[in-house]
Amino acid sequence: MAATALNGLKMATTSQAYMESKPVNDTRRLLADLCRQFYGLGWVSGTGGSITIKVHDDSIPKPEQLIVMSPSGVQKERMVPEDMYVLSPSGRILSTPSPKPYPNKPPKCSDCAPLFLKAYLMRNAGAVIHSHGMESCIVTMIDPLSKEFRITHMEMIKGIQGHGYYDELVVPIIENTAHERELTDALAEAIEAYPKTTAVLVRNHGIYIWGDSWINAKTQAECYHYLFDAAIKLYQLGFDWSTPDHGPIRKYGGRTNMPVKAGSINSNHETGPLRRCIVLDIEGTTTPISFVTDVLFPFARDNVRRHLAATYETDETQDDIKLLCAQVQNDLEQGVVGAVPIPPDDAGKEEVIAALVANVEAMIKADRKITSLKQLQGHIWRTGFENKELKGVVFEDVPEALEKWHASGIKVYIYSSGSRLAQRLLFGYTNYGDLRKYLCGFFDTAVGNKRETKSYVEISESVGVDRPSEILFVTDIYQEAVAAKAAGLEVIISIRPGNGPLPDNHGFKTITCFSEI
Predict the structure, then answer these.
(1) E strands along 55-160, which residues?
(2) Residue 222 catalytic?
(3) Looking at the predicted structure, is the pLDDT value of residue 11 above 80?
């Protein structure tokens, strides 16, 4: 029955009647309009570049929607809707434009088609843009050996899906080939290797950008080009776009925009470990455990009811509630102590909130490291920090160390079981002011459990090092140290007042202050 229905759907979308329908014709017109606009921006000049959009139809699942694609080798600013190709979801050409008289070339489907199809297949995209914008070309040439473009602390990063101002945007770079279609495998490998990316740069060539809709793809394309242009201008001024404060560019080994060596030199004049990144735990490392257990957790516990009641109808809180309900349902099935059923919405707001509060209090008491709890706590703490009811606490040696590492060109990241929002709040509202200017990014349990080796492998692949050993991880937890060491990271254990005991003969270097690093 399902197969019959699917076949019927395919026949309907490829019928002549559907090919001449309003959704298809509207998409053709939209594509022609965008080509003219992008030509004005310099993205598709000289017949280069291309655009493709799926025909949006609410009655058809996105993977089965038709594809409209601009042709190859034509003046993009002069195209009309009838010049567009229409393809099936698998890439079979269903409609070819009619030839035009000399000096126009015979119609030819875009050479980018195989790459567009990869983005559709691997990212379930709704539109893909291939730009030859000058910025996207030059930015790959600044460092000919770099396999990634990285930038942080720029407002327009917020326009890239899944990113915020304090995040580090990473765009993979693949090498150019003589023929567009020969890029297909490299593009697919980059898409697979960088699950968060919505773009791939092609060195000396341009960029492929995709989004879940044409609006999303276009918005991101504008932001990417802005950020590339900003990086080029900062480079011309001698500033480093990849660090939070965009200070002067440093060089080593003849390469631009790379951190200086951070190894120590011993009495035999031997250089110690080359550290390009430092990843810091929070509790017991940068911040007293007591601040988390005696201040943050109680504040969240005591304000759950007030927060839920005040924000119950907001999309953010409804999302928090959905996550909590799913977690509680799983807890009930697993027989987790403290889990109580959450009544349906029609039971009334107060009844739902009462059940949520009971579950959250039990989760906090058990110190559970689960996304649903951490997300809600982050939102509660945000209110506390913004209303100056909370102030982040770090050890007195932390600000000086962060400033020193930052000045040395070492990128510093945070990895904590608390949400990224909670991490940004803690370092943004500290007793020493806003320390986020020294930090390049934040990792939470979305990359994995802190006691699992694969989490540190994921971090190593995300921070742009050639070898995991170029990362120093500092934590107070022995099991985290073991997991990080197994992933190849250098590890130091932090011994601070209030930290738990370590096993005898644990084998790790220890420090009591960041000045010892």
Answers:
(1) 67-69, 85-87, 93-95, 127-131, 148-152
(2) no
(3) no
